[in-house]
Amino acid sequence: MSPTSADLLRHLGAGASITSMCEQIGWTRQQFDDWWRTELAARQPQVDGTIRVSGPGPVEIARDRWGIPHVSASSDDALFFGFGFVMAQDRLWQMDYLRRRAHGRLAEILGPDGLSLDVVARTVGIPRIAREHVARLPRETLRLLEQFSDGVNAGIAHRRDRLPIEFALLDYAPEPWSPLDSMAILGEFRWYLTGRLFVIALPELAKRTLQDETLYRAFLMAEAGDEPIVPPGSYAAARRTVEPFAASAGGSEQGGSNNWAVTGARSVTGSPLLASDPHIAFGTTGCWYEAGLSGGSFDVAGMAYVGVPAIVIGRNPRVAWGITNNICSQRDLYQERTDAGHPGCFLYDGAWEPAREIVEEIRVKGGETVRRVVRFSRNGPIVDELLPEPARHTGPVAMRWMGAEPCDELTSALRANRAATAAEFREALREWRCPTWSFVFADVDGHVGYQCVGRIPIRENWDRGYRPGWDPAHQWRACIPYDEMPAVFDPASGWVRSANNLTAPRDYPYPLSNTSSSGHRALRIRQMLQAQARFDVEDFQRMQLDTLSLRAVEARGPLLALLDAALAASDQAGGDPAATARLRWAADALRAWDCRMEPDAAGAAVFEVFFARWSHAVAGERFTEPAATAVAGAIGGLALSLLAADPGGWFTRRSRVAAALDALRDTVETLVARCGPDPSAWTWGCVHRLTLRHVLSDRGDLGLLLDRGGVPVRGSGVTVCNTGYDPNYMASIGANYRMIADLASTPPALWAIDAAGVSGDPGSPHYCDQLPEWLEGRYHQLTVGRDARREPASRVVLEVSA
Fold first, then answer.
1. Which residues contact 765 (CB under 8 A, 6 or more apart)?
2. pLDDT for residue 247
3. Is the torsion defined by CA of 657, 658, 659, 660 positive or negative?
4. Is the peptide bond before 58 cis (omega within 30 degrees of 0)?
5. Bridge-partner residues for 311, per DSSP?
6. Neighbouring residues of 104: CB distance < 8 A, sequence distance ≥ 6
7. Which of 108, 245, 773, 801 sits at 20 to 30 Å (Cα–Cα) from 692?
8. DSSP for 76-134?
9. What is the 3 state secondary structure string of 147-169?
10. What residues form DSSP beta bridges with 325?
11. Confidence of residue 3 (pLDDT cuts 50, 70, 90)
């Protein structure tokens, strides 16, 4: 009997190779490809005509040439119902994946491959926290969330016989959507942005390993670490008030984002201009969902976070805004003290307190249910298993995290979506607690501002390592009040900007617990903002695509001097002439380079591969494996400084010159392995390539069917055109969405570009269709309001069934 299409899809999803499947059923590869395309085509959502639904209505969904939807309705309820429906049309499987990740239920569909992420979610308590947050939602927010959920469920029902192909590959169907699912997704996003336990665990590991305060401070050094977001003099010099904090119930940052804005006096149109490009993982389907919403009390367009019904980055007719992650710590790790004489207890203030325990049961597809006991001290869950492997063996470590406290950023975002002025926008964010974000905003009246949001615990003794869990002095008792948070309004300079850099100067009256790793992007944005008098949309587009590496500008002089000394030592020692010639070619490529990370630049390839190898050499001087590898990507500031000199005596096992020579040899070996033996092929585009990977990419041959890209890409992790992280030749994180708003535009509009596309369906023409435009910097226009419905590429109307 011939296998059915359902059988074939299950085999593919289970990891069977295309070749083996073709051999078993007697197909050619062409026949397989034809079948695959037919399966994809049969699963497309309806985007034209009329669809009868049970819900508030009617709703009109008009799509532009990129498939980006503009949802219109006569009421808030109908609008959010339509928002849920259209998001399910485009992103249903991604939504299901994200809610399973948030609830700790990926192993149910992925088997053991999903277990590690499930353990994270259950240990942190994301589903438990989400239930608590749903119970606290204001009535209006809950109602809109319920309407969104009803819309998602209507979308599921309408596609029941043609679900996205991932459901067939993994052989399951989606469960009904609920407000809890959206809140869990929001909680997991909160964790993604602010959890990052390595930021505390690796410095603790360094403190224990180095046993020297001078070396430890060198380890913590940031690149361009004195480039603050808010300028000196924009805040009171002395601390004024604190916000009491409720009692608890029980390396460097990576990644980033850019945003900036100029006042009308600095723009060609006479009205403010604003730019935002959040940096997050690249993929065939981004975490952002671009849409316009018009109806009831909403008239807004921009990007929502998938599964959550609010525009996070965008504009309405009067206000525009953008975000970056503010790198101020919202979590602490506590070393807990135990004693064999008091089993199951943790010490606090001289007394032994019983641990609290809950049992989490994780169902695993094709295997037995896994039971995990999550223990809690008064500081929070014990998170040893979530720490980087080298830091997992120091005894119990508990975590306190602001995201577990009462949070309701959804209500804040919905209020911000409807703000009519910059002042209203800032007020809408007052109750935002987690994550800490840096908003820039502007309005049609000409106002421009910056606001740091989220609550930051006031730590009198701020240190990046663990805190003693038994000491009451280290408990959270107060946080910085909203009105005291770093902010700028209508600056005299005519501009504001942030790029995950230092939030405020060192004399800011509150301890901000900043863990920023680099100010180079912020410095470069400031340079460009100060380089000309006025800007237009095209200027901001060029700024977002700027590839000048200030890390390289700072490093090149001392690096070349160091390499010249290393090459002289190599000549003196003798060796293979061909190998020596390659080393000199690499040094010459650095010498001729303009420090721009362009695909055809040889110096860019040599520099970033060398810097990765050099960072590992620096780490290896004081750490053994696997700790050296773990910390190598988090010591950019130290590695950069050691190119010029080593006044603190970091190098002891070998000389700095010998380490540089070894790193250069490793660089050449890496470039030969990646690009071939001919140095003329050693370009940044050879080593720095962007592949949009599907989350199922590693299962058998699914990457061949679902991935896109694999193309050279400009920029790096420290350029404004952000396309990487340390080591920077790995282009897996970056500015996958870029947006610009001109507050003078009529009708109100955005200029934007997405690295992937609006659809997560591999058979859709809008699956990764914007990648060529993104690579070349060709933006589309997204109109705000009902004018967006003019001459759509497709239109569907949701009519209420009787």
1. 67, 759
2. 39
3. positive
4. yes
5. 304
6. 117, 118, 119, 120, 121, 122, 126, 127, 360, 362
7. 108
8. HHHHHHHHHHHHHHHHHHHHHHHHHHHHT-SHHHHGGGGHHHHHHHHHHTHHHHHHHHH
9. HHHHHHHHHHHHCCCCCCHHHHH
10. 437
11. confident
Take residue 25 and report the two structure tokens written for it: 């059923």
Is the separation of the CB atoms in 291 and 558 below 8 Å?
no
Q: How confident is the model at residue 499 (pLDDT cuts 50, 70, 90)?
A: very high
User: Tokens for 171?
Assistant: 């052989």
CA distance 587 to 582: 9
Residue the block writes with tokens 């997992």? 392
DSSP 340: T
CA angle 735, 685, 630 (to 5 degrees): 65
The gap from C-alpha 318 to its chain's centroid, in whole angstroms, comes to 28
Q: With pLDDT > 90 as the criterion, what percentage of the chain qualifies?
A: 88
14: which strand partners? none
Do 165 and 762 contact (CB within 8 A), yes or no? Answer: yes
Cα(580)–Cα(586) distance, rounded to whole angstroms? 10
Which residues, 6+ apart, have CB-to-CB distance to 126 below 8 Å?
Answer: 102, 103, 104, 184, 187, 188, 191
Please report, as a single letter, which amino acid is at residue 100. R
The pLDDT confidence band at residue 246, using thresholds 50, 70 and 90, is: very low
Residue 583 neighbours by CB distance under 10 Å: 22
Query: Can the peptide bond before residue 228 be classed as cis, meaning omega within 30 degrees of 0?
Result: no
Both tokens assigned to 455: 């609550």
Torsion of CA 434, 529, 593, 685, to 10 degrees: 50
What's the pLDDT band for 653 if we cut at 50, 70, 90?
A: very high
Question: Do residues 734 and 724 make contact, with C-beta atoms less than 8 angstroms apart?
Answer: yes
Question: H or E element: which one contains 798?
Answer: strand 794-800
Burial 678-707, CB ≥16 within 10 A → b, else e: ebeebbbbbbbbbbbbbbbbebbbbeebbb
Alpha-carbon gap, residue 603 to 545, rounded angstroms? 19
Query: What residues contact 160, with CB distance under 8 A and at least 6 apart?
Result: none
Question: How confident is the prediction for the chain on average, in pLDDT?
Answer: 94
Say what the pLDDT of residue 460 is. Answer: 79
Full DSSP string of 522-578: HHHHHHHHTS-S-B-HHHHHHHHT--B-HHHHHHHHHHHHHHHHHHHHHHHH---HH
Contact 738, 290 (CB under 8 A): no
Q: Which residues of 319-336 are buried (b: 16+ CB within 10 A; e: fewer)?
A: bbbbbbbbbbbbbbbbbb
What is each CA distance from 54 to 80, 152, 157, 570, 801, in whole angstroms? 14, 12, 10, 77, 6
